[in-house]
Automatic annotation (TrEMBL), chain A:
Stored Pfam families: Hus1
Cited InterPro entries: HUS1 (IPR016580), HUS1/Mec3 (IPR007150)
Native source species: Littorina saxatilis
Entry's family note: Belongs to the HUS1 family.
Location in the cell: Nucleus
Annotated protein name in UniProt: Checkpoint protein
From TrEMBL, chain B:
Biological process per Gene Ontology, one example term: DNA damage checkpoint signaling
PANTHER family with a match to the protein in the record: CELL CYCLE CHECKPOINT PROTEIN RAD1 (PTHR10870:SF0)
Record-linked InterPro entries: Cell_cycle_checkpoint_Rad1, DNA_clamp_sf, Rad1_Rec1_Rad17
Origin organism lineage: Eukaryota, Metazoa, Spiralia, Lophotrochozoa, Mollusca
Entry keyword Transmembrane helix: no
Protein name (Swiss-Prot/TrEMBL): Cell cycle checkpoint protein RAD1
Name of a matching Pfam family: Rad1
Origin superkingdom: Eukaryota
GO terms for cellular component: checkpoint clamp complex
Similarity section: Belongs to the rad1 family.
Amino acid sequence: MQGMSAEANEIYVELCPENLLRALRTAQAARWVKMKLTNKHTPCLTVEVELPSIGSCHRLAVHDIPITIIKRRDWADYAEPEMPDFDVSITMPTLKMLKNVVDKMKNINNFVSLSANQNGEMKLSVETDMVSINTHFKDLFNPAWRRDAGDAGVGESSRSSQGDPAQFAQARIDIRRFAQFLSSQQVNPNRVICNIVNNRVVHFYLMHDDVSLQYFMPVVST
Amino acid sequence: MPGKMLSTQQADDDSANVFVAKLDNARNVSNILKAIHFKDTATVFVTSQGLKVTVEDAKCVQANAFIQAAVFHHFVLTQDQATFKVNLSVLIECLTIFGSGAGGSTAAASLKMCYAGYGSPLVLMLEEDGVLTDCSLKTLEPDEVLDFDFCSTNVINKIIMKSECLKEVFNELDTSSDILQILMSPDAPFLQLSTFGNAGSTHSSFSKESDMVEAFQCTQTQSNRYKMQLLRPSSKALALSARISIRTDARGFLSLQYMIRNDDGQVCFVEFFCAPDEEMEEPDH
């Protein structure tokens, strides 16, 4: 299989992550892993795994994962989303502590209000007729972002310079989704950054050594 | 500014509150409360002695947890007594907000509890590793609690034993049986727990000579039946306890007292009262 042209040498494919996970699980002790796109009776992502054995001959496992090719006119749907124009950017506290708190809050209400400011403070709140609970995290780090200032080229713009740094930006999100997000982070990220657009969206940015993951969680209105 | 807000709250505390208690390990309170958590709401009585938390079901069973003032390192009550009702499930969730500690976490959350009097919320402040949680729980109009009129002078039979072996018996009780029959007698079989289920009857007997039995004061043979459904919640308290005292009075009412040792080695008590299932013939007084 080939890309569109030498300049746009890209192929977009869609696959079931469970299949890839299963194929890679056999590759944990592999001598090497080769991945390639093949056209068997259907387009496939072929994962070849050579496994060591005690004897002189090695074992070769081949997984063919069926894939769907994405048409070029749909590529735009898969573009990396732009970083939202956030009001507050803050590093998250340890996810383990956060997960404990959120798991308890989950039993109280379906929504949690996540708020933070540029003073390194973050707050989680749930409220019902019966109880209101607020958990305060402090001494967190507010990263400064070098970002594109609109179309006018690159400029240094740190949000902290605008407005009161103690001002909280707030987002009311689905607590079950948030809990799911927290429990799915088995791969320990180096740093998790939370960007909040007041009453619009929360953007989680997980930085690993050579991978970054982004999550967007929309605000649920009252 | 939450920082500022909290500091002003703190300043108000001692003047406005009728009850303030602090302790270093919230688990010492939450564990005891879990032992009586078989209904959503509980009535809390605060006296200079400490906290008494009462849970009732079906007007037939009552559980009381006693947390003495000594368990707290700071305990101030400015009036004779304070009584309120709270949602126990929510209270336990709040106390264990940083995790119940079962998951291997050794850190303990410190707790401050405040109550500003009738109609005010119960305010909890928990802190662990610099993370602060404040909870404000609505308090409800307290209900009248049952008086079982269980008087130690009317006690006919009393056995104090180590909880260990009873834990096994309770875990293996035949759940298809509607009732649990408790027989206590000065003669053999001394103490016998029986169930009558679909698969047949079971009897577990303890000799008074058993190492597990620490005190045996039975004056007459008495056999009473109790609804299994009502007694089952007591197994939570049993699981936590080190010793248990089983008593019955002349009317066949059952009192189970559990001695529970907390993380700091202090002793707390949980007590269950249960009415017998059948009308027993009233003995002549």
